[in-house]
Design a protein that fits this description.
heterodimer; A: 2 helices; 8 strands; globular; B: 14% helix
Chain lengths: 139, 114
């Protein structure tokens, strides 16, 4: 199942200028794949690069989109989610403006409204960052 | 990340802790999207603010090889929590930071510098 930029707003509560997803390219139970086209007007663009904070926000919104797809299937609206924690999040290379980054997110553990997710981001076929996020969904 | 905050005051304590008094800008356009119904300072923006202040403390561009741990302990509403305190220490290639709102710790952060 694919969700384009116009449908992203059904999956996540964030709105411009902090939407860090361009498309959800694939979904299966417990995992999702997303993409972001990095443009020079992105708030996390700096000196031609896309910053660490942008990679974390993009990964967190990918995780939120995964929860959003599952909510949408159950007929509910996007819920406001927050990053509870970032753990062992590695940056191998900062992507450059104009690149498209691809991220795969898998839920490893869920307890109540807290999920631990593993994220991996690639650009041009090369792994550029990976890490663990704890996401918290507000009721 | 334009117009997100400004540094009100900056000092260094005797144990080499860099202290920043920070004012968030509730009128920053980021809050149009985070979130339309209620402004919450994005955790990622606070990580970028820590990177910028750490760079200022060291007087050079700092980038992270990894964010080893970053715990978000409270939500920061820029309308209510305008004044923040950021304490940063360096130890070989790691940077540790604590962001506080009055007496409450909002973020505990540790990263490895590239």
């Amino acid at each position: 199942m694919k969700y384009d930029i116009n449908q992203i707003e059904k999956l996540i509560p964030q709105r411009s200028p902090i939407v860090m997803l361009s498309v959800v390219t694939d979904y299966e139970d417990g995992s999702v794949e997303t993409e972001l086209d990095i443009t020079n007007d992105n708030i996390f663009a700096d000196n031609g690069k896309f910053l660490e904070a942008g990679l974390i926000e993009h990964a967190a919104q990918s995780a939120a989109a995964l929860i959003g797809v599952e909510n949408l299937k159950n007929g509910s609206n996007p819920k406001v989610g927050f990053i509870g924690a970032v753990q062992n999040f590695k940056f191998y290379r900062l992507p450059t403006i104009g690149e498209t980054i691809k991220t795969k997110v898998c839920i490893t553990t869920t307890f109540d409204n807290i999920s631990l997710v593993q994220t991996e981001t690639t650009a041009n076929g090369e792994k550029i960052s990976e890490g663990t996020l704890k996401t918290v969904i507000a009721e | 990340m334009k117009n997100y905050y400004h540094i009100v005051n900056q000092s260094v304590s005797s144990n080499q802790t860099y202290m920043f008094e920070i004012a968030l800008h509730p009128d920053c356009t980021i809050y149009e999207g985070h979130f339309p119904s209620k402004p919450i300072a994005p955790g990622a923006c606070n990580i970028e603010m820590i990177r910028q202040c750490a760079s200022k403390a060291q007087n050079k561009y700092i980038h992270f090889a990894s964010v080893d741990t970053c715990k978000f302990l409270m939500l920061i509403n820029p309308l209510e929590h305008k004044a923040l305190n950021l304490a940063i220490t360096f130890n070989s290639n790691t940077v540790s930071a604590t962001l506080s709102v009055e007496a409450s710790v909002a973020i505990k952060f540790r990263a490895t510098i590239k």
